[in-house]
Amino acid sequence: MAKELVFGHQSPDTDAICAAIEYAYLQEKLGYDVEAVALGEPNEETKFVLNQFNQKAPRVIKEAKPEVDSVMLVDHNEPQQSVSDIDKLNVTHVVDHHRIANFNTEKPLFYRAEPVGCVSTVLFEMFNEKSVEIPQKIAGLMLSAIISDTLLLKSPTTTEVDKNAVKELAKIANVDYEDYGIKMLKAGTNVDARSDEDLIDGDAKSFTMGGKSIRIDQINTVDLNDVLKRKDNLKKAMKSEAESEGYDLFLVIATNVLDSNSELIVVGEPKDAVEKAFNGKLSEEDTIALPGVVSRKKQVVPPLTDILD
Hints:
about 300 residues; 11 helices; globular; alpha/beta; 5-stranded parallel β-sheet
C-alpha cells in the first residue's frame, strides 16, 4: 500500500492540525501507510495544545505530489483551501464538517461529513465505530479541537454530539475541560505579539461566492479593542493581499471569545452585499458590529453566500 499524506486546510487552526494527527493515527491502526502533515505553522493556541499533550507538530508542506500520489483530507474539501497541487493528486478520503463546494474526484472515495461543531467530533465517532481505543494524548487533541471550534461549546455550531464527545474525551484525557478550555482559548488571543500580516492570515479561508473570490479571516481575542485599535494597519495589509491574490472581498472577523460578540472589518467590493447579509450599515471606517456572531461557518458564510449567489 503506497504512502498517503493526511492534512487539514491552509492557515491551519487547532482542529485542522489535531484532526490530521488523529486521523493518521486511526488510519495506521486500520492498516494504512500515512503521515500527518500541515499546510502551515501552528498558531499560538495550537502550540499550547501540542505542548500540553506532548505532541510534536506535523511537518509543513507546500506541495504533496513530489512525495505521494494520494492524500486524505480533514476539516476541508474546497480545493482553494487545500494544498497547492491538489489538482494533481488522488483524494482517497475526506472527513469534514463544512459545506461541500467546488469538489470533485475522478475516482470513488471515502467521504464522511456531518453537521457538527468540529471534525474531531466526527473522528471521535469513527474511533468508536471501528473499536479503536483512543489514547490519552489523542483524546486531549480531540478535546482541544472541539473546544477551539465551538468556543468552549458556546458557538451556535455546537451540537449535542459535540457536548457528549467533550465529556467523554475529558475523562480519557483526565482534564477539567472548562478550566482547561479557558486557558487554551486565552493562549491564542495575544494579538499584540503578532504582525498585521499574521493576524489577517492566521485563520483565513478562501471561498467562491457568486463568481467572487472571498477571503474570510477570524481573529479570536479577549478584548475587541486589541484588534480594532489596529484596524487601519490591518486594512492596509488586507488591501495589499487582496490585490496580490485577486480577492474581490476580504473580511476579518474579530471575535471576543468571552462574550461571544464580533466586529467585522471589510475591504473590497461589493460592500453592499455585506450590509445586506448582516442587516447593518458599515461605518466610515468599514466596520460593522456583529453581536452574538462567533461562527464563520454558520453565521458568516451562509448569509453572505445567499446574497452573492
